[in-house]
Design a protein that fits this description.
alpha+beta; Glutaredoxin; Antioxidant, Horf6, Chain A, domain 2; three-stranded antiparallel sheet; 6 helices; 10 strands
Amino acid sequence: MSEQQTETAYQLPRIGSPAPDFTANTTHGQLSLNDYKGKWFVLFSHPADFTPVCTTEFVAFQEIYPELRKLDVELIGLSVDSVSSHLAWVRNIEKNFDTEIEFPVIADLDRKVATRYGMIMPEESQTETSRAVFVVDDKQVVRAVIYYPLTTGRNMNEIMRLVKALKTTDEHGAPTPANWEPGDKVLVSPPKTQEDMKKRENEDGLECIDWYLCKQELNQ
């Protein structure tokens, strides 16, 4: 099987599917999926080192990294550049932006990790990884996937909001509405029977638009 056939043999990980296994060299030494067992992590890819958009993103990712760690969420970067290139770039960022990159960056020279995670979009670039974001939970299940084009830097506030929303849903069993932010009301899952629907009409503490759409304060 040719290299191109091998790459197309992998499918994009779906939400709810197991995170693809990997072992890779990084700026922090060799790491594998197993090293993150029992931990949440955000894995993101960037097209190339020493490029304008990617540099601004790395500074921005480092800015949210402490907040992610407070949520017990790790951060991993990736591109098809070498470890030497990553190290030189990280040092350059520290010099020019006074920002130390504390999270590991995968050197995916053989594109194995990028291929397994569906990070390369052949129609956009045959060689560079896209701006992909994968949120993986502590059971090593893919919980969210976001893609951005090569020309558009990512929104760190949205990535943080997404992680917090996922963790809130796991902890409290409540879905979150559009534009939800921590501290906002959460949604109540709709009733599944007529009896539950009637109970909903008289239930205290709910803000209901209709029987199927109700909000409530989050019980901390």
